[in-house]
Amino acid sequence: MSIQSLYLHSPPKNAILQIKKGTQTMNIVCLDLEGVLVPEIWIAFSQATHIPELKKTTRDEPDYDKLMRWRLNILREHHLGLKEIQETIAGIDPLDGAKEFLDELRALTQVIIISDTFTQFAGPLMKKLGWPTLFCNTLEVAPDGEITGFHMRIENSKLSTVRALQSIGFDTIAAGDSYNDLGMIRASKAGFLFRSTEQIKADNPDLPAFEEFGDFLEAIRGSLS
């Protein structure tokens, strides 16, 4: 047997690499975007266009598919498209303290923003937040700028993403403000409501609810250990 084959079949002790399962917890925080870090885009657009019907959000309608189709019908009726919405978004700033909160949180642990917004909306907001990682969806837009449809990244995207992260070894901590956040919040090892409605808080009294970024950060920090 050659020296090479001997080494391959019976390596010396100092060449043996032992791989053991780690015991350190790998955390990742999953945050909603609108209502948590930035104002609600559709409420801002409603105010800009003076169309009160567009104020409805996932705080009011749990069925996101139904809500978006309703929104697109209103846009069509008023001959409004992507250009007008993007003009409104350009003037939206993060909530007071949101950028600082996110910077400090990202220094502590990994963070993903999981949102039901769309890539065509998100760019200016992500720039103002320091380009955090964002998982969201995409719109179908006609050459004239009409929004003709939308594609969701995956069904039940927030819950599905949390489950996928857990399947590759992460413990998730999740927070949001709306009905469509509850799945990922309840599936996580720790979950919080942030600046949610009184109705959602009343319906979920077991979920810690916060109004200020400082308190919110401390709650997340306590869940990381």
What does this structure look like?
- It is built from ten helices and seven strands.
- The protein is α/β, with parallel strands linked by helices and 225 residues long.
- It has one domain (27-224): thrh gene product, domain 2 (Alpha-Beta Complex), CATH 3.90.1470.
- Strand 5 (171-176), helix 8 and strand 6 form a beta-alpha-beta unit.
- The protein is globular and about 55 Å long.
- 29% of the residues are buried.
Quick structural summary:
With 225 residues, this protein is an alpha/beta fold.
List keywords for this structure.
single chain, 225 residues, alpha/beta, thrh gene product, domain 2, 7-stranded mixed beta sheet, 10 helices, 7 strands, 18% strand
Write the layout of secondary structure elements.
Layout: H1 3-9, E1 27-31, H2 41-49, H3 64-77, H4 82-90, H5 98-108, E2 110-118, H6 119-128, E3 133-141, E4 147-151, H7 157-167, E5 171-176, H8 182-187, E6 190-194, H9 198-203, E7 209-210, H10 213-224
Parallel strand pairs: 1-2, 1-5, 2-3, 5-6, 6-7
Antiparallel strand pairs: 3-4
What is the CATH-assigned architecture? Alpha-Beta Complex
Number of E-type strands:
7
Order of helices and strands: HEHHHHEHEEHEHEHEH
The CATH homology group name: thrh gene product, domain 2
β-sheet strand percentage = 15-25%
Helix-strand makeup class: alpha/beta
CATH class identity: Alpha Beta
Helix content: 40-55%
Distance between the termini: 52 Å
Query: Measured on Cα atoms, how large is the radius of gyration?
Result: 22 Å
Shape field = globular
Total of helices: 10
Mean pLDDT equals: 89
In total, the number of domains comes to 1
Question: Major sheet, described briefly?
Answer: 7 strands, mixed
CATH topology: thrh gene product, domain 2
| Unreliable parts | 1-23
Task: Give the spatial strand order of the biggest sheet.
Answer: 4-3-2-1-5-6-7
